[in-house]
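Before the break, one more example. Copy the sequence into your notebook; we will annotate it together after we see the structure.
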Amino acid sequence: MLRYIIVFLAGAMGSLLANRGIAVFNDAVRPIVPEYREGRMSRVEFATTTFGLSFGLVIGFGLPYSLLYSIILVHSLWLGTDILGTLFPAKQTDDWYKDKTSLLGAIGAFVVGGIYGVGLLAGLTGLNAFFQSLPVSVFDAWMSISDPITYAFIAFPIVAICIDYGWKKALISAIIVILARQGFVVLGNGYEDAITMFAGIVLLVIFAVTDKSEEKTDLASLFSDRMANIRKNIVWIAIMGAIYAAACNIGLLMEGPTSLGQVADGDTANAIATTIARAISFIPLKGLTSLTTGTFVTDGFGFTATVGLVAPNVILAAILGAVVMSIEALSLVLVAKVFDKFPGVKKSADSMRIAMTDLLEVALLAGSMIAAGNMAGSLGYLVVAAFYCANKYFKTPITSLAVGPIATIVVALLANILAVVGLF
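Here is what the structure looks like once it is written out:
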């Protein structure tokens, strides 16, 4: 029952924040919010654009991962609530609760967003029960998808160093990181993967803060008016932080495919390290889009997921989540000042995000091949490889990160259909 209450609140609050333009999850939607808020776009145009930018990602990215692990990837929930929130009317006024149209729109967004969250959780639970009852067992094989992810993902600082500072510095950094990792392997304390990631990030930060090649800016003063819009809504943001951290604490929501797989496998230590690394890498994108639009991010920078995993119980997780997400929102001016003083930090953080995405794509493809092979042998390898390559030539290609998991689902269904008719 607790899971359904929290997922209702998470969906309801995500939809309400999108309705009021306080926060949206989709980074591509955030720059559009001021266009509506400042009267350059109608509500219908705003809602239609949000739908176009978000719906495909819900179906092609969020749902496949959620289905694989029985933990909701936040993209499934909050890309959907971005759409739902913008469908309901909302006037841009501070006293919106005194306006009948805006109040009814906010209530409608809240209720429908909550129902969407409950439906998402119930649907995933039912689908997982269905897959476990199939004649060809696919559930255990599915878990193999996450096997390569952790080990590939921790290489992202080295790839980012290569992107920004060349292969020579990347090679030296790789040697240092590998030696550090193997030292901890010899010690046998089980923290070698977290140490590998930490050592790589330290080296990347050293290169970034000493990089003087980028021009300095003055972002902090340029967008002070829009920052005020976030500050005045800090209470709503804090409530969202509390709900999100509580959801992470009970294994209901997770911020990305890598940490989702790690939590599903019981690898909380590496999941915590992953959430920290991803939060750092997304600060430039989330921070700058929030600062320049006056609209925050539904899940914050990502540190809220971290405290949700660290907290010993759901109540403390909620308290810490509210505090952390509030700090993230209020720190936007400080973030801008850091970027102004150390422009190399922004460049390296952007490269971290690119490196993470590239490595995750490779790891997911490898994991999907392994899982499909465990399900259907050579047929599984054939289907995943063919689907991945053919996708590039589709009229509307599926996002590369989702191709492997979707192909694995296809293999699962195909193997069971063939088994029913006696061909497997």
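The first strand starts at residue 23 and ends at 24. The mean pLDDT is 85. Try to locate both features in your own notes.
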